Amino acid sequence: MTGMGAILIGIISVAALVLSALVLVRIHSYSEKLDTYFSTYGRMISDAQSAMARQQDDRLRSLDENFSRLRTENNMQMENIRQTVDERMQKSLDSKLTQSFSLVNERLEQVYKGLGEMQQVAEGVGDLKKILSNVKTRGILGEVQLETILSEILTKDQYDVNVATRPGSRDRVEFAIKLPGDGHSTVYLPVDAKFPGNTYAALLDAYDYGDKEEIQRCTRELATTIMKEAKDIQTKYLEPPATTDFAIMFLPFEGLYAEVVRAGLIETLQRKYRVTIAGPTTMSALLNSLQMGFNTLAIEKRSDQVWKLLGAVRTEFDTFQSVLESTQMRINQANDDLDRLVGVRTRQIRRKLQNVAQIDQNDARRILDQDIPSGEGE
């Protein structure tokens, strides 16, 4: 048993050795195959990597080329856009600048023109100040303006110039409006122009400087001057019934008239001195009212004449009516005579011609149209 076991063990050992040898041979064969396979696979991988690298290089190169071309095209388009924008901006800028310069030139011309006009106005103001600084010139200015207003609204026979309104007085008022009095007499309404230029100019200067105390002082001085002038007008020119019981003081500037109104002098002057203050506008309104009164008086004066004229027309119309009635009777008589003549005589002629034969109308016209021989019927 022991010997069989040893033999069996030997056999097993030999078999194991043989199996090991076979395994080693197989392993060596597989190792060579694996080496060959891995070598082939590695070569294939290397080739694939090389191909992929080449493809990647080609693609990258193509991308670079496309990107370069795209960049070039973009640059060209951007350059074109920039040039277009530059051209448009340049044109727009040139147009804007041209318009701006034209506008600036126009404004400068207007400024120069305005400066010239202001210089002329300044010269005119200076001349006006020189004129107004002269008392006599100021008086003439008011008289001229007042005469202009009077001549525009009234007729020449409705006012007199440089009139002594008080009987026996040497004081003459500049203008006197002629109002109808009792009978054929005339009642004068004195109108005198006053212009306290120095006082008014001082008041305007005080307004310009904003000096309240000076404004109050000049206002009081102006009120005193106007009161003095009103008293002078009352004393020199008013004497009812030769004149009206009030006079008009004309102030040639609306600003001066407004200052008098603001000072509350209107009622005081009317009550104390019987003098009414009027500026250019109020003077025109007052004269228009007087003109309406003149027209009413003229109508009243001529109403009697108009009534007499209407009576004469009525008398003449009655005579004319009687003549018309007589003429109508004669016309009716003539119509009656004509009717009798046409009726009776026509019937008699028809009876006389009953036995006469009628001929054709054309033959009758031809016979009647024949010329009568010369000498026949003489």
UniProtKB/TrEMBL annotation:
<keyword id="KW-1133">Transmembrane helix</keyword>
<dbReference type="Pfam" id="PF02646">
    <property type="entry name" value="RmuC"/>
</dbReference>
<keyword id="KW-0233">DNA recombination</keyword>
<keyword id="KW-0812">Transmembrane</keyword>
<comment type="function">
    <text>Involved in DNA recombination.</text>
</comment>
<dbReference type="GO" id="GO:0006310">
    <property type="term" value="P:DNA recombination"/>
</dbReference>
<protein>
    <submittedName>
        <fullName>DNA recombination protein RmuC</fullName>
    </submittedName>
</protein>
<comment type="similarity">
    <text>Belongs to the RmuC family.</text>
</comment>
<feature type="transmembrane region" description="Helical">
    <location>
        <begin position="6"/>
        <end position="25"/>
    </location>
</feature>
<keyword id="KW-0472">Membrane</keyword>
<dbReference type="InterPro" id="IPR003798">
    <property type="entry name" value="DNA_recombination_RmuC"/>
</dbReference>
<keyword id="KW-0175">Coiled coil</keyword>
